[in-house]
Design brief:
It is a single chain. It is built from 2 helices and 2 strands. By secondary structure, the chain is an alpha+beta fold. Strands 1-2 form a two-stranded antiparallel ribbon. The radius of gyration is 19 Å and the shape is elongated. The two termini are 33 Å apart.
Length: 108
């Protein structure tokens, strides 16, 4: 789905909610209804490709560096770690000694 409104007001559409409920109900013995949905969330992902058919655009990404600025376009949440490692290594290679990326540690 193409986001047309303000980015401050991104939310799941009723059409998207209905679609997910329909897919869920195909595989679960006790179907759910819209009234069973406690909350929703949605996000916006920039796409790399032609805008004439956004549905056909894959989840590729593009990294562009211009001087000290690195821009990342596209990608997806499930591959953000490998993408961040690539960007980190580019930063290291540009600004300092090349080195292997270390495993990320997140506070719990």
């Amino acid at each position: 789905m193409v986001q047309r409104g303000a980015l401050d007001d991104v939310q799941a559409s009723q059409e998207e909610i209905d679609y997910l409920i329909s897919r869920f109900n195909r595989y679960i013995s006790q179907p759910i209804a819209a009234a069973d949905v406690a909350s929703t969330f949605a996000g916006v992902r920039p796409l790399v490709g032609r805008k004439s058919n956004p549905s056909a655009i894959g989840r590729e990404y593009r990294i562009q560096r211009s001087g000290n600025l690195i821009n990342i376009f596209g990608g997806k949440m499930t591959t953000f770690m490998s993408l961040s490692r690539k960007v980190g290594m580019r930063v290291d290679n540009y600004f300092g000694e090349p080195r292997e990326a270390r495993e990320a540690h997140f506070a719990v």
